[in-house]
Amino acid sequence: MTTLCTRLLGIFMFVSVFSVSAQAQEAQRSIIKVAGDVYRFQNNFHYSLVVVTDSGVVVVDPINAEASQWLIDNLNTITDQPVTNLVYSHSDADHASGGQVFADSGALVIAQANANVDGYWQQNFRIHLAG
């Protein structure tokens, strides 16, 4: 019994150390120019599209709230234009989370009809669904 408890305690400590270590790592984020005014935003292993236009910035698939806030905080490295449009390509969580920070600042939220945008968005923000 003592050996079992010792092993379980060791496993718990091992898992705890690596769990805290993984949480402490900073997300790998960058904004890379693709061509012209088209940029790729990276958040770890997820990617998003940013397009700068004369009338504002278009963001596609905001990834998550933390990534979105980072993007807003760092867009000034490529433009002084505000985010005017947020496009959801589909409703998977790794594409459609975190858009509220853009909508709160007045961005028009655009999604296709099958994007399954929840009632919160429909009640609180302007959403244009394409057919």
Helices and strands: which structural class?
A: alpha/beta
Low-confidence segments, ≥5 residues, pLDDT <50? Answer: none
CATH superfamily, by name, is Ribonuclease Z/Hydroxyacylglutathione hydrolase-like
The strands making up the biggest β-sheet line up spatially as: 1-2-3-4-5-6-7
- Please summarize the sheet with the most strands: 7 strands, mixed
Query: What is the total domain count?
Result: 1
Distance between the termini: 64 Å
Q: Which fold name fills CATH's third level, the topology?
A: Metallo-beta-lactamase, Chain A
Beta-strand level of the residues, as a percent range? 25-35%
Overall outline: globular
N to C succession of SSEs: HEEEEHEHHEHE
Rg over CA atoms, rounded to whole Å, is 20 Å
Please tell me the overall pLDDT: 77
Tell me the helix content: 25-40%
In DSSP terms (H or I, runs of 4 or more residues), the helix count works out at 5
